[in-house]
Amino acid sequence: MQLSDESLRRILAGFSARRILVLGDLMLDEFLWGKVSRISPEAPVPVVNITRESYYPGGAANVARNLREYTPHTRIVGRVGADRYGCQLLELLAASGIDTSGVLRDASIPTTVKTRVIARNQQVVRVDRERNAPLAPAQVEETATEIARAAAEVDAIVVADYGKGFLNQRLADEICRLARERRVILTVDPHPHTSLSWPGATAIKPNRAEAFLAAGMTATDPVSPPESDGPLLEAGRQLLDRWMCGFLLVTLGEDGMLLLEAGRPPFHIPARTREVFDVSGAGDTAIAVLTMALSAGAAPREAAALANCASGIAVGKLGTATVTIEEMAAALERD
Prior knowledge:
Layout: H1 5-13, E1 19-24, E2 26-39, E3 46-59, H2 60-68, E4 73-77, E5 79-81, H3 84-95, E6 104-106, E7 112-119, E8 122-129, H4 137-151, E9 156-160, H5 169-182, E10 185-189, E11 203-204, H6 208-215, H7 230-243, E12 247-251, E13 257-260, E14 267-269, H8 282-295, H9 300-314, H10 325-334
Parallel strand pairs: 1-4, 1-9, 2-7, 5-6, 9-10, 10-11, 11-12
Antiparallel strand pairs: 2-3, 7-8, 12-13, 13-14
Helix pairs in contact: 1-10, 2-8, 4-5, 6-7, 8-9, 9-10
């Protein structure tokens, strides 16, 4: 299949009418920006003088934030704690125009917060505040009902599993059933430690390490070119059989992405990245654009190329960043 930037731009033009449902673990990303002028006398660590703070939706909430760049029809189902961070996250989502009516407020858990300290355009340290806990049985049923209601009104469902306890096999089975019945696109950004099955998903997007872990194989050193990486191809073959999905899109960092489909040769998309500042959130950008493209009628290779383009732009930004259609169009024109 010949890919042209003209065809990719036509796909971008169809994004705005798509209706997307996001499911998964919701987080709040806190960024503390500062300057380093000395080393602490207490320990060999830098002293960061904080000059400003910023807050962004994280995890599945960042996927929704990315999607909102492309379509006003974005809704999210997930869980936050009944605390000030949960309120802050819901306010950020609502301010972006994202439908949060399906979000659970759970007083038994804190909202997951990931704090990154940034100095001199580099991340100095990350501090996580979280407690992983499964949904209670009543919450599972309430969530399944909400997913069924939302799935009747969307063109695509994207699942972002961060392993914090919101998703389980009962919900995964219901999501897959609804996607089949409604004939909507279903994409999944999996978490290897949850070992959830997604039969019939349109696409699943693990990174290289996650692919080996999910396949129960020992990770090997990358091989160039990636389409000749025998161990990775074997891991992909096993996952295609196990997950019974349409295709796998394995993200490879600086080596781009590898598209794997049953019965077709592997397709490598080289990275478009020029300079890497911050990889946080790049995977969220990739799954968001992949889903948008597929729902807009893109073939797997076209959708993967656009996802690769968007993630390359995202890592060139500091913080949990989104990527606009204009930025993608400009990158396609430039390259």
